[in-house]
Amino acid sequence: MDYKNAGVDIEAGYKSVELMKEHVKSTMRKEVLTGLGGFSGAFSAAAFKDMEEPTLVSGTDGVGTKLKLAFIMDKHDTVGIDCVAMCVNDIACAGGEPLFFLDYIACGKNYPEKIADIVSGVAEGCKQSNAALIGGETAEMPGFYPIDEYDLAGFAVGVVDKKDLITGQNIKAGDKLIGIASTGVHSNGFSLVRKVFDMTKESLDTYYDELGKTLGEALIAPTKIYVKALRSVKDAGVTIKGCSHITGGGFYENIPRMLPDNVKAVVKKDSYEVPAIFKLLASKGSIEEDMMYNTYNMGIGMVLAVDSADVEKTMEALKAAGETCYEIGEVVAGDKGVDLC
């Protein structure tokens, strides 16, 4: 008896590392002091030594049951982007710049090519956010996961000068809300998605005219990374007073998280066109509108609160960064919460 007979292939692990090396290398920053394969990753503080009061911010998350689509579609090169996005977008909400990222892949059986595909997506997400992929873990766990399935999670660390932290404390009545478009469902609410649509290859390969693509293509589209967009707003001289990443819990849970106690957000539903994938999901699943806004991003992946005088400058900066954005509402006096009208 040996470890391989028990279901853990050490040689496959070595091959996985070799196949992912080029992807990892593509994310390197000058502050990275260690190579792939060590026991830990080292990152120099030179990246933020000139800040007045450097403050570390961190985020951790996973892809969730969206992975079930990847299994069925046998497409594994985008879920890594989702994993990075869910972590670095949260860091960006605090005004932070991501520095480095670590991933964790747990699988029933280590198929090196599949692991390399997953890591290629992680590396792409890191490049989009300028974070270095400085380490990770691939755990082969036979008997715990089915041999053709895996889980994927990650952890990111960023930095912000304390004076530039986005806390929401200075949001006041009269401030405006700017919504930045999402790329679709992102990585939340897939347990409900999987109840509405048949999770079969035939169903996911079905083409919908209103989507302009197959259902699977629409659903597996990776989460938008907003790091560079928020940096563009900052570089334009705009103070972002509050920032909300619209993830699980949709508008109703996430927008109030950026607000102080004495104000509420008023969002105008007709201020932008809700993407077709959400309309299809609501129709096929007979999901009430309030539940849709309480579960999904509904086409808005990030909401910014800015002074009314900064709306035009904010919109121009976002558009220059390649983003689609809308003025979706305002802040008014009242108990903390959000009204959709």
Topology:
Elements lengths: L9 H16 L28 E9 L4 H7 L5 H15 L3 E11 L4 H18 L2 E9 L9 E12 L14 E6 L8 H7 L4 H4 L2 E2 L4 E2 H6 L6 H9 L6 E4 L4 H5 L8 E5 L8 H10 L3 H5 L6 E7 L4 H10 L4 E9 L4 E3 L1
Parallel strand pairs: 2-3, 9-12
Antiparallel strand pairs: 1-4, 2-4, 5-10, 5-11, 6-7, 8-10, 9-11
Helix pairs in contact: 1-4, 3-4, 8-12
Distance between the termini: 66 Å
How much helical structure, as a percent, in the residues?
25-40%
H/E element order: HEHHEHEEEHHEEHHEHEHHEHEE
Report the biggest beta sheet as strand number plus sense, adding barrel if it closes: 6 strands, mixed
Question: Which sequence of strands runs across the widest sheet?
Answer: 8-10-5-11-9-12
Return the structural class: alpha+beta
Q: What is the global morphology?
A: globular
Give a verbal description of the structure.
There is one protein chain. The protein is of the alpha+beta class. It is 33% helix and 23% strand. The protein has twelve helices and twelve strands. The strands form three sheets. The protein has a six-stranded mixed sheet. Strands 1-4-2-3 form a four-stranded mixed sheet, covered by helices on one side. Strand 2 (97-107), helix 4 (112-129) and strand 3 (132-140) form a beta-alpha-beta unit. Helix 1 packs parallel to helix 4 (112-129) and helix 3 (79-93) runs parallel beside helix 4. The longest helix is centred in the middle third of the chain and has 18 residues, at 112-129. The termini are far apart.
